[in-house]
Amino acid sequence: MITTDHLAIPYTGGTQDISGVPSEAELTRLANLYLENEFVQVPAQTPSYSPAVLSQTEASQIREINVNTYGPGENVTNSTSAGNAGKAGVGGQKGNDSIVIGSKTLEQIRQDFPILEETVNNHPLIWMDNGATTQRPRAVIDRLTYYYEHENSNVHRGAHTLAARSTDAYEAARQTVADFLGAPSKDDIIFVRGTTEGINLVAQSFVKPRLNPGDEIIVSLLEHHANIVPWQLVAQETGAVIRVIPVDESGQLILPEYAKLFNERTKFVSVTHVSNVLGTITPVAELISIAHAHGIPVLVDGAQSVAHIPVNVSALDADFYVFSGHKIYAPTGIGALYGRKEYLEEAKPYHGGGNMIADVTFERTIYNPAPNKFEAGTGSIGDAVALGAALDYLTGIGMSEISRYEHELVSYGMRELAKIDGLHLIGTATEKSSALSFVLDGHTIDEVGQYLDKWGIAVRTGHHCAQPILRHYGLEGVVRPTLALYNTPEDVDTLVRAVRSIH
Question: 3-state class of 302 per DSSP?
Answer without folding.
Answer: coil
